[in-house]
Structure formats: structure tokens, C-alpha cells
Write a structure and sequence with these properties.
- Helix content is 45%, strand content 21%.
- The protein is of the alpha+beta class and 248 residues long.
- The protein folds into 2 domains: 3-75, Orthogonal Bundle (Arc Repressor Mutant, subunit A), CATH 1.10.10.10; 85-245, GAF domain (Beta-Lactamase, 2-Layer Sandwich).
- Strands 6-5-4-9-8-7 form a 6-stranded antiparallel β-sheet, sandwiched between helices. It has a 3-stranded antiparallel β-sheet with strand order 1-3-2.
Amino acid sequence: MSEDGKSNVRAVERALDILLCFADRNEWAMTEIAENVGLHKSTVHRMLATLEDKGFVIRDRASDRYRLGLRIWELSANMSGADDPAIVCLPQMEQLRDMLGETVSLYLRDGNERIRIQAVQSNQAVRRVAPVGARLPLYVGASSKVLIAFEEPAKREELLHDASWPASFDTKQFLEQIEEIRKLGYATSIEEREQGAAAVSAPIFNRAGKLAAALSVSGPASRLTPEKMREQAAAIIEAARHLGAMLK
């Protein structure tokens, strides 16, 4: 590849890095973006100006902050709903929320992280709010354990020995949990990642029998006790089975 070609690819990568900032927050100042992506402010300023011209970001002149533009929504409107788990699974997730009264989330694995691609919030006054788009570590939490436990053996081994995981991570103890989860068909967590929160999760296998996602029900640990989660596990597993039948 020529030097000009490499420069063009790098410019595209930088622009995408800037857009990906909005997966974490809906508004950013230019200086915050520069710090987040590790680029000089002048470079970020030029790229934001181009993205604004194309409609991918909007600049609020009063606050001098940026948010996503309408062009993003135009692109998302053309996604195939038949292939998008976040769309396909939503009705069943709402039904499960109404049945159990807690927040229901759908997670996909992305490398050594999990990302929440859909969530249906509990209607209860005291509830766990689950923002869509959040990236979470794969070494902690009910959904994380499901996304590892039911992965193909070679990939599971690779994930369990990922060098980026914390030095304090106890692989042996985690493996014991994984084996138990595979026997039960679901995973639970109590205040593993977030104080006062608990969750129970089951795997979703697509029609080809491959792990597609993790379905999770979460709420305050005061309501989602170990006994309560055991009672709800069958309903969550059944909902996950129904969802898998709809996925290619």
C-alpha cells in the first residue's frame, strides 16, 4: 500500500474512533474527544468539521458540544430487522419483563468484552437501569459467565487465558463456576460488578445450535435473592430457547 493509501486508511480509522466515542456518552466537547481518542485537538477539530458537514455529528453552538447527527439514524433505519437480534428479540424480552418484573437485557460478546445491545427496563420504582450500548468486562457478571461457558471449547480456552484480564483473576475458581453453569444451564451473579445488583442469565443458541447471545434478568439484590433467581431460571431458559428459534 502506498503512503497516501496508508494515510487515507488512518484518517478513516480516526474518524471512526471519534464516532465510537458516542457509544459511551451522547454529548462530548471537542477537547474531551481529543483526550479520549488520543489525538491532537486540531486533528479532532478538522475531523469533527467534516463529520458535521456530512451530517454524522451536530454541534451545539451554545454549549460547543457535539452529539450524533441524523445521518446516523438514516443508516440505522436501513438495517435488516430480520437479522438484528436487538429487534427480533424485543417482544419476547418485553413479555419476560412483564412476567418477572425486572430489567431484561440482551448481550453479545465482542472480543473480551460483552456489549448490551437491547434492554427492557423494569417498571418498578426501584430498579436496575441498563443502558443500551454499554460495554462490560467479560470476566465478571452472569452474562459474561454464560458467554464463556457455552462458547466453543477452543474459543472458551482462549478467552479464559486472555492476557488482558486482571492479574487478580482466579482462573481455577472461574473454571469451577463455568462447569457448574454448563450443568445448570444458567448463571447468576450477586454484586460482582455493581454494588446492590444481582442478575441471572441464560444462553441463546441460534437455529444452527451456536451460541448467539446471553439473555439476562437483573435487579436489586434485595429482590433478586439466590432463591428468587433459582425460581426464575426456568422461565429465563425457556425465553432464551424461544429467542434462539428466531435467530439464524
